[in-house]
Design a protein that fits this description.
Strand content: 15-25%
Oligomer: single chain
Distance between the termini: 30 Å
Helix content: under 10%
Order of helices and strands: EEEEEEEEEEEEEEEEEEEEH
Length: about 200
């Protein structure tokens, strides 16, 4: 079993790390967090106890992954990406908000980043704004609603401007129609085991 790597300044309090996980300087993984095989956490990454991260994920420096966030396999999370999990945040220590924060289910909104998706540097993902399989979120985008599989989104709020292949190349057409000019993948290959054209679910089933 590959023991991976843990920088001497990293704090790893969870026992739910897979084989070959690499944790770099000043990262902090809280108790209960789940991290899959061969995943890499860059410098200053924080993973809260209720977060779930799959296998072969790359999370670059300065990313905070909170309770309620699920990152599936093969996802890329660029530096400075911001996740959130509360649509109407107040200080839990405030008297007017104490009842709301008494139980997690009354305030937490879950978010899933599906298999193979990429989040560009400094993107912000609002609670419940699921990102579909192999979708690509442009740098600095603010994602306020679910992103379809294979979609390319940019801006604030993020809007669909095209589609990408599984290899990351922008397609000349939709993912259901276009053969990739870079890798040659056909629409049939692209959708065979993942998503049906016309359905376009936000999150892999």
């Amino acid at each position: 079993m590959d023991s991976g790597f843990r920088h001497e300044t990293a704090i790893v309090e969870s026992d739910r790390l897979g084989s070959g996980v690499r944790v770099y300087a000043y990262a902090h993984v809280m108790p209960g967090a789940s991290i899959g095989d061969r995943t890499t956490l860059g410098d200053h990454v924080f993973v809260e106890g209720g977060a779930v991260i799959g296998a072969n994920v790359t999370i670059k420096n300065g990313v905070l992954v909170w309770d309620g966030v699920t990152i599936q396999d093969d996802v890329f999370v660029g530096p400075g990406v911001v996740f959130t999990n509360d649509l109407r945040p107040r200080s839990p220590r405030s008297a007017v908000a104490a009842n709301r924060y008494a139980e997690q289910q009354t305030w937490l909104t879950e978010t899933t980043i599906a298999t193979g998706a990429s989040l560009g540097a400094n993107a912000t993902i609002l609670p419940g704004a699921h990102v579909g399989a192999y979708a690509m979120v442009g740098a600095g985008s603010v994602v306020v609603r679910p992103v379809p599989a294979f979609a390319l989104v940019v801006g604030s709020p993020a809007q669909v401007i095209g589609h990408v292949c599984r290899c990351g190349e922008r397609l000349r057409g939709t993912y259901c129609e276009a053969t990739c000019a870079a890798c040659g993948e056909t629409p049939e290959q692209r959708t065979a085991a993942l998503v049906s054209c016309g359905d376009r679910p936000a999150v892999r089933a």
